[in-house]
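Technical annex, item 7. During the second reporting period the consortium partners agreed on a shared format for inverse folding records so that results from different sites could be compared directly. Each record opens with the tokenized structure and is followed by the designed sequence. A conforming record, contributed by the partner at site C, is shown below for reference.
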């Protein structure tokens, strides 16, 4: 439910400040959130007074509030290339091409990762759209020769999320999100679902998941998205994968950034639960449900 524990100097540049005085020892807990109505439409007209924050069940005073529409974006696209995706791979690639063309701006960066029986990163973090396009063109399911050489598990979903969070996202700052395109099937990861989610939470990274090519692991994708503050999407005849990517783009560019200073000092590093709500009826707040309080 949280975004990141920022040092106050960082927070000062991210929020519309209510108080101009900062101390170097103050840590601001920052929560990026979307608010949707019952039809799933984004609500963009809320103010600070419309939100309430609980940390470990205790109310906190919101000190900083803004609508973050222009923060740099770090984006990871994780594509399931296991054989269960063979029939939809071309549609996935095409939609990813169009999404990257629309969403990436000069100050944004992205990387591509594929996962099946192995995990590979065809292109690391870059702002070069042409490099991303070229790498994406060659992302595909394993060849017959590769399948014959297979050793170990078949779909390393949890390991790929953990790797992307720890090896790439944890080193970045600002707005960060992973987009996972998969049927949610998992077979062979060393990491558990909880470990994968907690790696994303420690790296202050949202997970947006797209259920594509089946529904065997729907629950995995729903949990990863819900507990990291991202969104879960399932293309249908009315809303195809391009429509899903458009919705993700809107959510990434229309978030509220809400900050507070915890009234409980951090003496031992640990996860703390968060609950962000709004007093307006009929609205749903989409934000993660815990953050890593670093001593």
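Designed sequence (site C submission):
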């Amino acid at each position: 439910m949280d975004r990141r524990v920022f040092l106050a100097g960082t927070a000062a540049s991210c929020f519309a400040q209510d108080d101009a005085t900062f101390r170097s020892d103050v840590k601001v807990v920052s929560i990026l959130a979307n608010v949707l109505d019952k039809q799933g439409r984004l609500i963009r007209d809320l103010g600070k007074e419309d939100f309430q924050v609980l940390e470990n069940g205790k109310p906190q005073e919101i000190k900083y509030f803004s609508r973050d529409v222009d923060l740099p974006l770090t984006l990871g696209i994780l594509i399931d290339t296991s054989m269960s995706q063979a029939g939809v791979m071309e549609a996935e690639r095409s939609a990813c091409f169009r999404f990257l063309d629309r969403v990436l701006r000069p100050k944004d960066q992205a990387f591509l990762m594929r996962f099946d029986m192995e995990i590979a990163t065809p292109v690391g973090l870059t702002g070069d759209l042409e490099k991303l396009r070229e790498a994406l063109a060659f992302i595909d399911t394993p060849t017959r020769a590769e399948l014959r050489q297979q050793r170990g598990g078949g779909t390393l979903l949890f390991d790929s999320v953990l790797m992307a969070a720890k090896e790439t996202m944890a080193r970045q700052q600002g707005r960060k999100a992973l987009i996972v395109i998969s049927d949610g099937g998992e077979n062979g990861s060393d990491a558990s679902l909880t470990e994968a989610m907690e790696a994303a939470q420690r790296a202050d990274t949202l997970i947006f998941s797209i259920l594509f090519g089946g529904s065997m692991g729907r629950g995995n994708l729903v949990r990863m998205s819900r507990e990291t503050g991202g969104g879960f999407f399932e293309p249908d005849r009315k809303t195809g994968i391009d429509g899903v990517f458009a919705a993700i783009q809107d959510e990434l560019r229309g978030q509220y950034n809400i900050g507070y200073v915890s009234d409980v000092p951090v003496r031992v590093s640990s996860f703390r639960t968060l609950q962000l709500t709004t007093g307006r009826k009929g609205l749903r707040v989409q934000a993660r449900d815990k953050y890593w309080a670093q001593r």
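The first helix runs from residue 8 to 14. The chain has two domains: 4-69+254-293, 73-249. All partners now use this format for quarterly exchanges.
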